[in-house]
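Study the following:
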Amino acid sequence: MHREYLRNMGINASMSISIIVAGKLWGLIACHNDSPRILPRHLRAVCELFGSMFSLQLEAREKSEQFEARLASRKILQELMLNLAGVEDYAYGLTQQTPNLLDYIHGGDIALDGQRGGGVAVRVESVTTSLGATPDKAQIKALAEWLTSYMTDTEGVFSTDRLSEIYPPAKDFANVASGLLVIAVSRDPSDFILWFRPELVETALWAGDPTKPSKTSNDGDRISPRKSFEVWKHTVRNRALPWTAAEVDSAFDLRVSLLQVVLRRIEAASRERAKAHERDKLLVAELDHRVKNTLANIQALVTQSSRNAASLTGFVEGLDRRIHSMAKAHSLLTQSRWEGVSVEGLLTEELGSYIQGSGVVHLEGDDAVLTPKSALSLSLALHELATNAAKFGSLSRVEGQISVAWRVSDDGSLILTWRETGGPTVMAPTRRGFGSSLIERALALETGGRATIDYAPTGVVCEIILPKSALVDIGDRALMRVEPPEAPVPAYDIPDKPRLLIVEDSYLVILTLEAMCEDLSWTVVGPATRLGEAIRLAQTETFDAALLDVNLDGEMSWKIAGILKDRGIPFAFSTGYDQTNILPDHLAGSQIFAKPYRMADVESRLRRMMSLNAAGETTWLTSGSSGER
């Protein structure tokens, strides 16, 4: 067939010299003559030598160009890795900084206008970041899914200059991505870096139609070589400029470097997780320690209050006030992340109900912050002083006054003076009660300070001295202060025998709220202890107000609140969380009752909610409001 082809061209002698590069046929030197010709052995040997020398020179030239390209790419690779060291998102670092992935491997030729063709996309954890001309994100996503299974047998690098032939959907974006060079950075999830080359439309000029028609003869069908050798044009589409060996090698180098970066980050994340686990263990241990200490303190308060109470009612009231005093101090410490509480903030919290509008309490002193332990001790001491003043001292009369002054001495200790005036004549007690013992001994034992109480006839004077170790070095930090509480809520008219929806998952709290409702002749709806049950009651039952625990066994009660808000039923949340940031945006401003409860406060605020709603003035009250809508 080949001889027939030559005869059709008028050729009667031919010889070819093979050009072998890297063990593969690169091309041929074809020699033709129109008449028979025989070359002597020595001339054939010379031609063979020439072919070998040409092949070696060509291979050396290609390797030299490939080596230079690798050197240039290695330099850019070093800069890429340096840039990646300063960013968390390596997709951003590889595409949005200089140099970038298109500087590293060209996506296409330099066009006539000087602009570079092609593009690159980085797909990390299902997020695509692209640069240059690329398929759209949906097309890249589909291509990545196909590559996940197609590249299972590769070494993480794949290239083609005719993508649509193996991935038919690529015909839809052949103008930007007929060529593809891809590296797999990870398998789970499937992360890829993909370079795209646009279609390079090429017109090939053939010496005649290259197709070989079939010809029937006595011997059967036979392929017949062409006889016409007029120039035949053939347009090639859906192909791109082939990727060079240097570009494929550069892609492999990048993959190795990225895998090292990813591994380092995985190791760093593993170390951080280990550190976080250790921190969590310490936090749990510290929480366990604090909870048990708090329970031990409450146990001691119960024991001491019962020993010194004259009646059951007095015991309950005294214990309730002391627990709330501890709760206030804990709330202040939580707000400051247990770093400390300002003295002014602690005094304002403990004496807030007396400060509000009465003018009988005067506070003045230096900026000072107490350590958590000192704050808890001082809060109980201040509570005892305030309770005693309200029962027997200056706060028991309208004209009575209290002044509290404090200063930081030259040696760094805190000196606080509590002074009462305008009250009844004071007589020294005949026996030391729990309150006096708590003030004098607790401060000394827990802080290393001391407290002395002078029962002067004109009013009690207490001097408290806390050592420097009881204070926090505040430096330039802003002090955490507490605003005075709002004025007592006046009584309001409420519906006859109101119905209260209780949503709460703590049995003891439910008992307390049910007891309050029983004493007030209110009807309890529920109580609901789970989210589904609470939603059903909120949708179907009739009631005048609702008290919702924020967290119901791990489920938040926002949906219940939304139902009540739509129905126009007033509600309030109850929680032990920090109140400043717990509510979602659409419920911001809702009333919050802080745990542990002061039942008198719960009753008065619920009365106000129901009365305003009955009057048609508001259905959704904001926390801390006193008449605002």
User: Anything to note?
Assistant: The radius of gyration is 44 Å.
